[in-house]
Specification:
The complex is a heterodimer of chains A (335) and B (313).
Chain A lengths: L36 H37 L2 E2 L7 E2 L3 H7 L2 H34 L4 H9 L6 H11 L6 H8 L11 H12 L4 H12 L3 H9 L4 H29 L3 H7 L15 H11 L3 H29 L7
Antiparallel strand pairs in A: 1-2
Chain B lengths: L1 H14 L12 H42 L19 H9 L2 H32 L5 H11 L4 H14 L7 H4 L7 H12 L3 H9 L4 H9 L4 H17 L2 H6 L8 H13 L6 H21 L1 H14 L1
The chains are: A mainly alpha (335), B mainly alpha (313).
Chain lengths: 335, 313
């Protein structure tokens, strides 16, 4: 989870040595110019390069070259043992007629469409409650964040246990209310909703981000809204929502990207060497299928083409979200 | 009927003589404020009730898991809070069946190496972007941010081929060595922090003869403690729980990390007709525990760190 793209809008870190002049982020001051400027500058660039060198080397080896090579591999048949064999755009043509790929795309789209709105609604509801809880909010913040520290593999295990159709806890509780719960882990229609519900257990990080945003809304805005006669709902719509919209947008973008790449929980619960028990087509998400193609069937070329398709999908969706956000997201003191 | 009462109340209010000068009646102001306070207090109590119920829902899976780990196999799914028959057999058995100690050790090694290297290297790069001014800085930093958008799947296969060519597949190296080169998100986070430090402090140190490295290592880094702690803890959590890399690179059970080992237990005891869930449950408890401890030790740091990621985003 990491898509922060608006530098320069941080909350200030605690200041160090208050009288020590402008921070590094400020515009350059007048000191230290004049003499030997060019030589100083050259030495300066050299030092800068030394500090940046870990990233530059890492970028070349682990990002730039892999991207180029992956693009090349996507035009080949490659099984690691034999040399890559150039096949042109055949892999991309095959993508369109691969039923499993279409299935995986559909599963992933449905999962993300179900998960992101629920994630936002649930984390917003919890954040609003925490905001009203006064002194107890610190304790409950911890409670809601704790599941986030659970390894996703363990979350996958918990899914199989708690959502077990016959004697899982979820269906037992539903039974108290006279509801006959579905077979979450085996009924293809209920696998994805079940995984979505399980994923709501780990909303903690989003809750904390939204709570911080709620706390950052200036109190004066509410006071002046009150003077103007705005009631609770009016205040929520005209003050709270615009002021926390950047945080909401951040959560939506990050969770969409994460949802499209969902892997750990579903893979743990439905795939792997031992699974001869049930059909797992309903849980075949895009990255799971990509992983299988690459490392189980050793179709490295085909998997590379799949990776680029995923990249394209993510870029298009994020771009759409960015364009929509221009109209909906309010950035204070921005532009 | 109720309208009658309200009308009556309104009448009695109207009948009350206004204070001289037409000033608003002073008595109603504190009364009104007290009402608002009472309402707010009622709201807080309601929020507490709702949060307590939700808190139980959020904590219950942990409780369920720990409770089930002390139940014999036949009782695992009885959904009782307190085990009917209490047993430690599961812990003994899982310790014998799986090299848990080795998995914990492997994970600890990878986690420490990954977290320490990524923190230092990211801080170096962040300092390079924060302190120095040079042409192309904006472009390079944009590139750093752009790499965050790249899905891991795109670089996954060539990266595997690199480690394969270096003969490192099957070892723990690929799980952490990439961290030697920093990570975009942490570079961004730490740069933001560095930008808030006073420049004169570093200029003064330079004039006093400190080297560029000395300024970074002895002056800037010690001032960055809280931010470094956030990076360290984030990375510990990420590496400790990572399944994908372990699936790609680890082959032999003796080299497994915790998530990979737990997955192998699910494969062996959950699927394939065995259904020994008590083993998997107990292993899940053991593997989840260390992170919960880390969380309680670094709680404030983690939560403040998470909160600030959203604000910066």
């Amino acid at each position: 989870m990491s898509t922060a793209t608006r530098p320069g809008t941080s909350s200030e870190p605690e200041s160090v040595g208050a009288s020590a002049g402008p921070p590094l982020g400020a515009a350059p001051g007048g000191a230290a110019r004049v003499r030997g400027r060019r030589r100083a500058r050259r030495r300066n660039v050299l030092s800068a390069l030394l500090f940046l060198s870990p990233w530059i080397i890492g970028f070349l080896i682990f990002t730039a070259w892999p991207m180029i090579y992956s693009a090349y591999l996507s035009l080949t048949d490659y099984d690691v043992i034999n040399d890559p064999e150039f096949v042109g755009v055949q892999n991309y043509i095959d993508l369109a007629s691969d039923d499993k790929l279409l299935l995986a795309l559909g599963n992933t789209a449905l999962f993300t469409l179900l998960q992101v709105p629920l994630y936002v609604v649930v984390s917003l509801a919890l954040a609003l409650l925490l905001d009203r809880a006064g002194r107890a909010s610190g304790f409950f913040r911890t409670v809601f964040f704790l599941p986030k520290m659970t390894p996703p593999v363990a979350v996958g295990v918990l899914f199989l246990l708690l959502f077990n159709g016959q004697n899982g806890l979820i269906n037992t509780v539903l039974g108290w209310f006279g509801i006959d719960g579905p077979a979450w882990t085996t009924d293809p229609a209920w696998v994805k909703p079940g995984l979505v519900f399980m994923s709501l257990w780990t909303v903690g990080a989003s809750v904390i981000i939204l709570l911080a945003a709620l706390r950052n809304v200036p109190k004066e805005l509410y006071e002046s809204a009150q003077l103007d006669g705005a009631g609770f709902w009016r205040q929520s719509l005209s003050v709270t929502l615009p002021m926390i919209s950047p945080a909401l947008f951040f959560i939506i973008v990050v969770n969409t990207i994460a949802g499209l790449q969902t892997f750990d929980e579903a893979y743990t619960a439905f795939f792997g060497a031992g699974n001869t028990t049930y059909s797992n087509d309903a849980a075949l998400f895009y990255v799971i299928y990509l992983f299988q193609q690459a490392f189980e069937f050793l179709h490295m070329g085909y998997a590379s083409a799949m990776a680029w398709l995923l990249f394209l999908v993510i870029m298009v969706i994020t771009a759409i979200q960015l364009i929509v956000s221009r109209r909906l997201v309010y950035y204070e003191g921005d532009r | 009927m109720s309208t009658d009462i309200r009308v009556a109340a309104a009448e009695s209010e109207a009948a009350r003589p206004l204070p001289a000068g037409g000033a608003p009646p002073t008595r109603t102001v504190p009364a009104g404020r007290g009402g608002a306070r009472a309402r707010r207090r009622a709201g807080t109590v309601l929020a507490w009730v709702a949060l307590s119920l939700l808190g139980i829902v959020f904590m219950y899976p942990f409780v369920w898991l720990v409770s089930a780990s002390f139940k014999p196999r036949s009782d695992v799914f009885d959904n009782r809070l307190i085990p009917e028959t209490f047993t430690l057999d599961n812990y003994v058995q899982v310790w014998q069946e799986a090299p848990l100690a080795l998995w914990l050790l492997n994970t600890a090694i990878v986690t420490v190496l990954a977290a320490v290297t990524v923190t230092i290297s990211s801080a170096m790069v962040a300092w390079g972007f924060a302190y120095f001014r040079f042409r192309g800085r904006g472009f390079l930093f944009g590139l750093v941010l752009a790499t965050m958008m790249l899905p891991g799947a795109v670089t996954m296969i060539p990266t595997f081929l690199i480690w394969n060519a270096l003969g490192q597949v099957g070892t723990l190296t690929p799980l952490w060595a990439g961290n030697l080169f920093g990570s975009a998100f942490y570079i961004f986070l730490l740069r933001q922090f560095f930008l808030g430090l006073p420049r004169d402090l570093f200029e003064a140190a330079r004039i006093d003869g400190a080297s560029q490295w000395g300024v970074f290592w002895r002056i800037a880094l010690p001032l960055t403690g809280p931010a470094l702690a956030v990076v360290l803890v984030f990375e510990v959590q990420a590496v400790w729980t990572d399944l994908m890399k372990a699936l790609i690179y680890l082959r032999d059970s003796d080299t497994f990390t915790i998530p990979r080992g737990l997955k192998s237990l699910v494969d062996a005891y959950g699927f394939g007709g065995e259904w020994h869930w008590e083993i998997i449950i107990t292993a899940s408890v053991i593997t989840t525990l260390p992170l919960i401890i880390v969380f309680f030790l670094a709680q404030k740091r983690i939560i403040d760190g998470v909160a600030s990621t959203g604000l910066k985003g």
